[in-house]
Fold:
Amino acid sequence: MESVKILNIFDLDYLTELMPDLVCIVGRDRYFKKMNFAVTKLLGYEYDELLTQPLDHYIHPEDVNNYLEIHATLYGDRSVQKFENRLVTKQGQIVWLFWTAVYADKYDVIFCIAKELSYRNVQSEADRISTVLSALNAEQIQALKISPDTLRRNLGAKEPHLELYTRDKMPQTDQHWLGKFELAVRQNRGSEYVTLATISSDLAMSERQLHRQVKKILGITPNKLVRMIRMQMAWEAIASGKYRTVTEIANVAGYASRAYFQEIFNQAYGIDVSELL
Structure:
């Protein structure tokens, strides 16, 4: 029988398209030169759109300077760099990424792989709120029902489980599962009521299993977790500065009813969301 010779030839482009992590090539000018589907999927832009702006255009303003220093370092001493930063999606949402970047001298470009960080490295609720409150002017602060300092102090009492988002010792498998849960909520934000049946279907499990899993990891109900995620989306939208009305913030957070969104935001934080805009 004639033996079959197997050639060690692989299509690397095809393989990178299969990866859930972001894979991209960035030039000396900081523009994308090539990227896999995961990049466009996460950021919400078309492939060609992403090629029209430098990478720092999509980076959170507070992280741009650090990125520019790393970029310069890569082209300077050409060492492998590992770092975290935030990117802002086309919809205004903030995502955390852990990057590994290396200079490829053959092509004079930077090869990057980024993994999305979900619950472990997202800013705590208190940090997000502090960022927004710190940007308020004197007139806005005077209009608040309670002082910014009081809001910061009362945060833990109003939402005792929110800090569970940042538990450093959470097993990686739990972090990954919670990331999938959050993605299911974010992808269904156009529906005013994200049903547990929808989330269960997205996660390929029964509603009963869903309840048990969330309870095991966080000690709360799935509905409570959905509300926490939506409140997080609301604070991300406020912090981005791209939205000027309560209706816009409500839509980003997945609430079709402006009045209902204002009501639950007030219940959670003791403040009218309109006073932050």
